[in-house]
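$ fold --in a.seq
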Amino acid sequence: MGPAAGLAALLAVLALGAGDPAGAAARGDTFSALTSVARALAPERRLLGLLRRYLRGEEARLRDLTRFYDKVLSLHEDSATPVSNPLLAFTLIKRLQSDWRNVVHSLEASENIRALKDGYEKVEQDLPAFEDVEGAARALMRLQDVYMLNVKGLARGVFQRVVGSAVTDLYSPRRLFSLTADDCFQVGKVAYDMGDYYHAIPWLEEAVSLFRGSYGEWKTEDEASLEDALDHLAFAYFQAGNVSCALSLSREFLLYSPDNKRMARNVLKYEKLLAESPNQVVAEAVIQRPNVPHLQTRDIYEGLCQTLGSQPTHYQIPSLYCSYETNSSPYLLLQPVRKEVIHLEPYVVLFHDFVSDVEAQKIRGLAEPWLQRSVVASGEKQLPVEYRISKSAWLKDTVDPLLVTLDHRIGALTGLDVQTPYAEYLQVVNYGIGGHYEPHFDHATSPTSPLYRMKSGNRVATFMIYLSSVEAGGATAFIYANFSVPVVKHCFGGICTGVVKGMVTHFMRAVLSWWEISGWPTSGYMSMDRSSADPAAQALKTKTLAERSRSSPVTFRRSQKPKARLGEEKGELPSGRGPCQHCLFPAKGSGLYQATPENSSQTIRVERMGNT
């Protein structure tokens, strides 16, 4: 699945347990679901109301000050104004003794700002935390990496992939929105603080460029300045091995802040380094992208996210076909489902128009109050991780009759018993800014997984319904099969897109389905998954799937109700098999980086921002 920076959809997955609404609004997790980001609009509207009242108060105060100024100025502009006039003499003395004091020490300005501050403090508990700023910044970096986006373009509000002379528009927002110098600085600083100079340098360079263009102008809301950007960028270049650039930027910094002793010392140290190693003057350091140790298939994954991988067309491979499916079920005889076979090995099927707009909306509404940060199994624990950015909620069938109806529809179509304890509850997932789920297995791969201690057996199938569409990105990628499936609203089981003569044609309202015990994992973008397991799964696994009919799915049962926990794992990939992953909005990446030491390992110590 993949990140959905501002382009999110809602994924529903049938899995274990129910959520707790208490954790749904936790600060620091706003960035991980677009529903949470959308809710952040409400407190900002309240802040806008407070600022409007403050501005009106200040405008009235300034109008009154202007009136006083004009009155006194008119007296001074009239050269014939005689101080011999007792009335004028009295008012002059009164003004100087009391009027000016009242103007200067007026409490109106402080009362206006106090009202603004009091209002902000009441709203503050509903505002995103600094962790959200960090998470959103890392999301932009993931999008930058996965979709090869240009930082300068992003700063202008343009989502373009530039490869050599080829420029591809990945996403065209309805409204062009550019970033400020301070915005770019904050993104770069998040990477800088992680020791990730690969990402820090281009963002800080853009910040420096924008600050230079507006030098001398001060924006109240800005936290940083040109000097801050130069300081961080100089040290980032030094850490990356480019001493020449570090020296040039440090000298520029001293033009604006000549009394900064720390930077003056750094300049001397850079000059000494270059004098001792003249080759560094012309040598350009090649900055490597941070490695992600746990993700061995990063290049393949990102390639599939960018190109949609190998997408065979039906006329080229006759065994990939479309049909109306009833599965010999009376439930579907009068309303068969449109079926599209997407891939044979692994066997992936797309069912179109599986849910209606009303049903999708209802499911999203039921889940939204319960959404909380998605977790993965880590031994005995369930933990939030950087390689899975989303929020999820678990819905039992008893929550609403619609979920019972949906179960019946899935069961009729697949032949599987999807009632508990034979299947897991419905999980609804909402991906956030740059939301994604890196390659993983939906079924358990480790003997330490809680799933192995449940008498229900392992997961054998996944059914994913996209509850909303996206404007770009978000595909589900099957790495070793070399294909990916784009997000299409209301599709059951996964993708709803085919490539015809090089053009992507979209079919709305569909579902993607695949079998877990075949060893092919997945992660879905805003989808609904239902997993069904078999008590004898260990013995049945590949043999059953190899012998089953493509048009007649096998029904698997479990003997015990599952625990209310998600058992997804990020285990090692078996030989010859690979996971499926969800691409980001228009980008994907790991978000986990190897931080370099704070200071240089060279013998000459260079002081970074904050050192004394």
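$ fold --in b.seq
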Amino acid sequence: MALRDELLKSIWHAFTSLDLDKSGKVSKSQLKVLSHNLCTVMKIPHDPVALEEHFKDDDEGPVSTQGYMPYLNKFILDKKQPDSPDFNRMCWTLSSRKNLDRSQLLISNDDAFKIWCIFNFLSEDRYPLTVVTEEIEYFLRKLTEAMGGSWVEERFEDYKMQLTSKQQSLTAWALIGLVGSGHFSKGVDRQALSMGINEVYQELIMDVLKQGYILKKGHKRKNWTERWFMLKPNSISYYVGEDLAEKKGDILLDGSCGVEPLQDKEGKKCLFLIKASHKSFEISVSDKKKKHEWILAIQTCVSLLRQGRPAPHREARLKRRELRLKQQAEQEELELRMSELQSANEAKQLELENMRQALEEAATDAAEEERRRLQTQTELQDRYRTDLEREQMVRKQMEEQVAQKSTELEQYLQRVQELEDMYRQLEDALDDEKRARQEEEVVRRLQARLLEEESTKRVELEEVHLRQQRAISETEAEKQELEKERLAKENALQAAMKQLEQLEEERQGALEQYQTVMKKLEDAANNTKTWKHKVAEHEGMLRLIQPGSKGQQLITNWGPAAFSDAELSSRQKKWQETKNQATQAQ
């Protein structure tokens, strides 16, 4: 909780003390007095005009706490950080006059003020301010430990039962009355009770984690002086005495500070060294237990500063509140589930009642239905007997028809099997014909290649012949030399003629292969015609796939040609163009 939130709780007590008729509102004149007192404590000038300006739109009557809080934050608390003890003391003075009954109290007014501050620290963050039983138990345990007594769990459980039957929490004045009446401090004198309240106040409100008399070595004169040390989360203050009347100095703590034990020296025992940012302090305590406690407490403060965590009691309070909020949420969820289950149970009970009525009606209807069934059973038996005889007769007829259909089905299946065998044989014949056509195509390609080579050789021979004629028409002086060349060319021509004869022999071989393939093709065609005739005899159930018709085939001097008339004309045209070009070149 921020410091401002704690101060607002103190102001809330002062505000409610001015609310005499318990209406939740206070007149502006009283608020002016309250604001003036707050400014006096904070030592800032009070501006009454600001209050009038702030509430100029609300002239109908007194102001509620919700309306006063924004003014308080803006015009007073934002100007300066107040001194918490003086601020609380002023609010306590205003509120205690009206609400505190001192006739039954065993404690002083100062102790009541400290319990009031502890109440503000432990109370919930909602108005009106109250403290729950868990925080009451925490405070009473702390107080009992501070007084050196033992905690009696049964006594508090009895009190909690009485408290639960009336209410779930206490106000500040009820808590002061509970502690001041000595209900939980029986057998303890008033001085011990006052010291216990002061110790708890020092820890929870003043953030004093540890305090006591210890010896400190001076920095200038190097003498040892006994001082009252007070450890807080971010500093160590030391005074002349425990009445805190004269403060001698502060040791500021941060994350870089450290503490380490020292060896005994100069007649002093139980020494340890506090290393602050700018100075180091040598400390001596009375025994090893206190030495360990002080070192551990200082190391705890430094560790909290490094981690940026608050004081242990403040962190524990936050955890307790988070746990209460979590338990409250779980309780609300449980209550919601219980209500849902109860609603579901009621719905189920209603559904069961409806089902019971429906079952009774169904039983009545079933009895009536049984009577009608028995009445109609006799009629149905006679009808079933007649239908059974008729069914037997029909069944016999159906068996005869099934037997006849079975015979026809066997014949049909046999016929389908014969057609399938015929179809497979036909497919084999078509495959033979397809392979024959492929072989014919191979032979045609070979014949075309041979003819192309023959045409190439003829062109070469024509070129040789033309060159010979050009050689004869040249001058007589070159005749002998040309004659030699002619002889060489004639030899080349003879070699070419031999190659041509060899090509002719290869063409004759290809022609024989072609005739063989044609023979196979004719056999395959005859075989196909035979299967066509067989298929036609089976009522035309299948239709054969026949090869397409061929065009008119060209017949040459060496037999059937491997190309069409158009291809032949194209080749003759190219050969004639080549011959003309050679003639023009001469």
